[in-house]
Amino acid sequence: MTAAPDRRQTKTRAALHNAFRSLLLGQGYEALTVGALADTANVGRSTFYEHYRTMDDLLRESVQGPFATLADLVDKPAAGAALVSLLLHFRENQQVARVLLGWPTRPVLASALTQLIAARLRAVALAAPLIPADVIARQIAEMQLALIDAWIAGRPAMQPDAVANALCAGTGALMSVLAGRVR
């Protein structure tokens, strides 16, 4: 039986996430400091370090939920409504998405998505992969992020259903070719 999360910890993490988003939009990622984040969240610096080692860890945690939908395309190719909802969420929060998909956060996002996809790949039987699973995961993650980045930027204009279908098809194609698995 798993213990319920401590309400104080949950409240502190929520405050840190809210402060992170606010400061990210106001200052950009490079200018963020743990001190400013802690002050904005109304917690001590040591409290931040009780929850996260680095700002990158906070960023990684903040994208775990949304990125799970993308990672699921590896073993659940028919994401449909959930994927379109995620894309619409990105579009509705495009100011944040543009900051996150740019430098210096893009590599952190790619790494977080790669880890989620690699976990899915470990659960899938790969017949005869051409390259190591971690490299397959990275290639899928980069493809997905590139397509989402182009869609959010509106270059070219695309419908969310079309982007969702392209994400499914692209992930499926990479899985088929690189992982040696035919869907």
TrEMBL record:
<dbReference type="GO" id="GO:0003677">
    <property type="term" value="F:DNA binding"/>
</dbReference>
<dbReference type="InterPro" id="IPR009057">
    <property type="entry name" value="Homeodomain-like_sf"/>
</dbReference>
<protein>
    <submittedName>
        <fullName>TetR family transcriptional regulator</fullName>
    </submittedName>
</protein>
<feature type="domain" description="HTH tetR-type">
    <location>
        <begin position="10"/>
        <end position="70"/>
    </location>
</feature>
<dbReference type="Pfam" id="PF00440">
    <property type="entry name" value="TetR_N"/>
</dbReference>
<keyword id="KW-0238">DNA-binding</keyword>
<dbReference type="InterPro" id="IPR050624">
    <property type="entry name" value="HTH-type_Tx_Regulator"/>
</dbReference>
<feature type="DNA-binding region" description="H-T-H motif">
    <location>
        <begin position="33"/>
        <end position="52"/>
    </location>
</feature>
<dbReference type="InterPro" id="IPR001647">
    <property type="entry name" value="HTH_TetR"/>
</dbReference>
